[in-house]
User: Which sequence fits this backbone?
């Protein structure tokens, strides 16, 4: 490459970089709350005719708010997954009324037009009366608005707009309603009347005004055009002066114990060889510290919302450290570990680089479009800056790559340079908007955090599979986006407009913590850990010989503990931001340990399906001889007494049978206790699939999984996956389970699974306000579901072992034998009984099974208020 070409290349690169720097320096902050031009008011501010006479009746605006407990019909409009029986629901009925002189035709004509009804009904209401929002309280359902009503009487025209809000708060939390000024300019009135009425709620705080009237059931106030807030509390709630912390917190103790057990099994799952490597120890220490810092930052971020201004600054800085640890340091540590550990060069090529660059350029173009629409840079200036930066970057790439001799390669380099230039310009403008303190695309920060977090699953799966894969990279980026929200949340109307009005955005909650980017990232980390555990079980489950390994058993126990982690809003009274831990995980661990560590017989595992077939046929032959010997003793007594058989004939047949049985006459049958020449992973997946199919119909009772993002959805699906994971344990560790027959092993499994499932409802079963019939129905449904799954799994495993041996199932379970049909008939009866119990179950039982928290004195009457 000649000196002149080098100079040209560097000069063009400098021009591209200079254009990007100049564009970032020339960018202006985007106002967070732009005021619309005065000329663009929807309603006319002045009448078309002559000035209004002073004798006209002046307009009046009144707002009446009625707060009540919602009825069952009201709650039916909300998604059932959002209703929490452990929290309090409130219905706010708001009626805005505008009274004007009927002779003000121009104003009334503009109102009566109702342009773009009903799409603009919300903006029309806010324009006339101002937005009415609930600051404290979770939204249960979308706002319902009634059509505006217009009446004229006595020369006065009244226009009424009514809307209904459904909100949900904690039992001890207040309800704060904010009344904002109308968005219309100029105002129609210089004061307005606001009244709040409620029989169930009482007004406890008013700020900045003196009410005109105060009664037991509400207040009335006449206020100038200013924002005001009114806070209410429910009359039935009793406030405690100080919490009594002297009692022993069993929830906290069990939570800490469960965490310790989980950490022990995670360490055991990795194995001693894993811990001997320095690189692995560095990963464990670095990842553990980053996760701990991020976990501590979650409650600090929550406290920032309620702290004073000085304390909020310190808490905000601490929360930023959590974001850096989770979204910067942890991905860097994981990627460094994967690069050093995964063998061989990564299979990336220029096509992959083009795809990545193109994706980044699309995101950059979206940011540049936002900058142009909201005048961060004027559109002509923005287009000129982007064109100069992209053209100069492409020219520099051509100058540097001309000596390659491959025109296609040079074109690819130029396209990559264009993408990098546009992406860098978009990143610079985004950083400028973010640092200005004004408006920026609300979802842009989540997008950057999601892309950074996606490096963690990419690196983790690469280490687990010992290879780099394009599919894994693509799935990692998709998982990073889904962890931060569903596509509907990413693509809603407010995602890429301006920053939302509130200083602290309102997020959906899981427990007591809002599902912001940090909390979602931690939940995603827990989900990723579970996926890596499953992948490790896949890698270790190639041979039945590995089942006795402590690493394999520890990995399975860790998976079971994670599945049975139970979220309770008030179950853990220490500041642990992760979903609180409960006794269910400990019972699952103890039950699984009891299953696989019991007394076992020594037997030989078949290595091929032919060996399995021979073992099953030998067992069937021995079983036939045992049955013949039993029949000889059963029928021989009668025949000897009747003289139909001589004693010599009886002894001859007995000796022949004993000779045929040989040493097997006193040895238990073990052919049905083997893995059938299949890998533990294959057996586990088959058992998991069948158990899932058997328990899937119960999702209609327990509720289908739901969530605001991938992590919450999977976390909510644990109730659906819990028994199938026990089924996976049955198939994976089948040779180690107690018993020698499929049905015997299944009954042992049912014992452990039933104890675990019932332990999840211990608090509800000991609740005195819940009736004995409801408790019995809960136990019957849980036991019935578990029994159906386990007995069905045992019958299927029995059929599968015979099928793999090429033998008909009827040789072990004869349909003409009542004894053989007893087990299938029991399964059918259990299914029918569980279905009947589910059908007659009341709402209390339904809420208990769905996992809602029911506390003393808060059980709702199923007949409604």
Assistant:
């Amino acid at each position: 490459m000649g000196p002149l070409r080098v100079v040209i290349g560097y000069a063009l690169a400098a021009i591209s970089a200079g254009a990007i720097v100049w564009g970032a320096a020339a960018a202006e902050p985007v106002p967070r709350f732009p005021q619309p031009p005065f000329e663009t008011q929807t309603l006319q501010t002045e009448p078309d005719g002559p000035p209004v006479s002073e004798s006209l009746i002046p307009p009046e605006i009144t707002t009446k708010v009625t707060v009540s407990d919602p009825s069952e019909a009201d709650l039916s409009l909300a998604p059932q997954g959002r209703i929490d029986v452990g929290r309090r629901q409130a219905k706010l009925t708001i009626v805005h009324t505008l009274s004007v002189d009927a002779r003000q035709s121009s104003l009334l004509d503009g109102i009566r037009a109702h342009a773009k009804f009903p799409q603009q009904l919300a903006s029309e209401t806010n324009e006339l009366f101002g937005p009415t929002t609930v600051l404290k309280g979770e939204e249960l359902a979308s706002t319902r608005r009634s059509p505006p009503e217009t009446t004229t009487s006595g020369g006065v025209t009244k226009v009424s707009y009514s809307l209904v809000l459904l909100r949900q708060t904690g039992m001890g939390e207040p309800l704060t309603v904010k009344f904002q000024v109308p968005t219309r300019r100029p105002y129609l009135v210089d004061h307005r009347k606001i009244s709040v009425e409620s029989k169930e709620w009482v007004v406890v705080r008013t700020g900045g005004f003196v009410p005109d009237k105060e009664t037991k059931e509400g207040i009335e106030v006449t206020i100038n055009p200013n924002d005001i807030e009114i806070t209410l509390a429910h009359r039935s709630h009793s406030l405690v002066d100080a919490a009594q912390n002297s009692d022993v917190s069993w929830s906290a103790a069990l939570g800490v114990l469960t965490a310790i057990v989980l950490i022990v099994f995670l360490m055991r799952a990795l194995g001693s060889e894993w811990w001997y490597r320095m690189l692995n120890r560095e990963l464990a220490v670095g990842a553990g510290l980053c996760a701990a810092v991020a976990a501590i930052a979650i409650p600090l971020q929550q406290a920032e919302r309620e702290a004073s201004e000085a304390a909020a600054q310190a808490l905000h800085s601490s929360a930023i450290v959590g974001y850096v640890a989770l979204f910067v340091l942890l991905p860097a540590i994981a990627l460094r570990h994967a690069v050093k550990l995964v063998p061989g060069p990564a299979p990336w090529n220029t096509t992959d680089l083009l795809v990545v660059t193109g994706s980044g350029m699309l995101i950059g173009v979206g940011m540049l479009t936002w900058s142009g629409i909201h005048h961060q840079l004027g559109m002509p200036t923005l287009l000129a800056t982007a064109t100069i930066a992209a053209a100069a970057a492409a020219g520099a790439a051509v100058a540097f790559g001309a000596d390659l001799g491959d025109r296609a390669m040079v074109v690819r380099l130029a396209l990559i340079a264009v993408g990098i230039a546009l992406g860098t310009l978009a990143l610079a403008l985004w950083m400028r908007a973010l640092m200005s303190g004004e408006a920026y695309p609300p979802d842009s920060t989540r997008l950057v955090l999601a892309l950074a977090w996606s490096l963690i699953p990419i690196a983790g799966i690469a280490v687990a599979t010992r290879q780099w894969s394009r599919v894994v990279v693509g799935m990692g980026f998709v998982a990073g986006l889904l962890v931060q929200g569903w596509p509907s949340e990413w693509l809603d109307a407010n995602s890429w407009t301006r920053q939302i009005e509130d200083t602290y955005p309102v997020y959906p909650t899981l427990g007591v913590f809002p599902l912001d980017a940090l909390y979602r990232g931690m939940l995603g980390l827990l989900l990723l850990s579970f996926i890596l555990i499953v992948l490790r079980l896949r890698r270790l489950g190639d041979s039945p010989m590995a089942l006795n390994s402590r690493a394999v058993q520890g990995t399975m126990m860790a998976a079971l503990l994670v599945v049975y982690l139970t979220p309770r809003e008030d179950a853990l009274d220490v500041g642990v931001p992760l979903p609180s831990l409960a006794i269910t995980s400990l019972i699952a661990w103890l039950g699984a340990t009891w299953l696989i560590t019991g007394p076992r017989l020594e037997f030989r595992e078949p290595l091929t399906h032919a060996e399995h077939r021979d073992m099953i046929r030998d067992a069937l032959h021995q079983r036939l001889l045992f049955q013949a010997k039993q029949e000889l003793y059963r029928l021989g007594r009668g025949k000897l007494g009747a003289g139909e058989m001589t004693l010599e004939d009886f002894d001859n047949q007995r000796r022949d049978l004993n000779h045929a049985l040989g040493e097997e006459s006193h040895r238990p049958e073990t052919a049905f206790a083997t893995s059938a020449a299949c890998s533990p992973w294959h057996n586990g997946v088959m058992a998991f699939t069948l158990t899932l199919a058997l328990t899937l119909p119960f999702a209609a009772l327990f509720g289908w999984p739901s969530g605001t993002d991938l992590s919450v959805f999977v976390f909510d699906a644990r109730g659906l996956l819990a028994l199938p994971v026990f089924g996976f344990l049955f198939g994976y560790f089948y040779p180690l389970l107690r018993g020698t027959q499929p049905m015997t092993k299944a009954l042992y499994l049912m014992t452990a699974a039933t104890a675990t499932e019932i332990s999840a409802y211990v608090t509800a079963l000991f609740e005195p306000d819940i009736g004995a019939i409801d408790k019995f129905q809960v136990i019957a449904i849980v036991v019935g579901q578990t029994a159906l799954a386990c007995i069905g799994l045992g019958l299927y495993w029995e059929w599968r072992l015979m099928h793999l041996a090429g033998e008909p199932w009827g040789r072990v379970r004869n349909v003409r034998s009542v004894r053989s049909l007893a087990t299938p008939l029991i399964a059918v009866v259990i299914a029918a009984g569980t279905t009947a119990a589910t059908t007659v179950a009341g709402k209390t039982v339904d809420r208990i099974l769905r996992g809602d928290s029911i506390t003393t004195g808060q059980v709702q009457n199923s007949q409604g208020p």
